[in-house]
Design goal:
- By secondary structure, the chain is mostly helical.
- The chain contains 4 helices and no strands.
């Protein structure tokens, strides 16, 4: 009986998402949409497909690069260790 009560309580608790998780999911959705648009631009031949294909390929590289730069700058401005640090293990040794 006790395990059923715990399972019911666990199901009732809401999953809290942080802003980092929300932005990560949004980034994944944007990249997947870019891949789909790139594929459709490559398959269907129209007057704008070449420009659309090139734009999507550029954005596929640029968006993750910009996310990394913003994360790196945030870490530098706030003196925090982020995944974008070149050597994050060195900061942990000092503390």
């Amino acid at each position: 009986m006790m395990s059923q009560d715990k399972n019911t309580e666990n199901k009732k608790t809401k999953i809290k998402m942080t802003s980092k998780q929300i932005f990560a999911i949004a980034g994944i959705v944007v990249l997947v949409l870019l891949y789909v648009v790139t594929l459709l631009a490559a398959i269907f031949d129209s007057s704008a497909s070449h420009a659309l294909f090139a734009t999507c390929l550029l954005a596929t590289v640029a968006i993750p690069l910009l996310i990394w730069i913003y994360t790196w700058m945030f870490g530098k401005l706030t003196n925090r260790s982020t995944f974008a640090d070149f050597h994050p293990e060195e900061k942990n040794k000092d503390k």
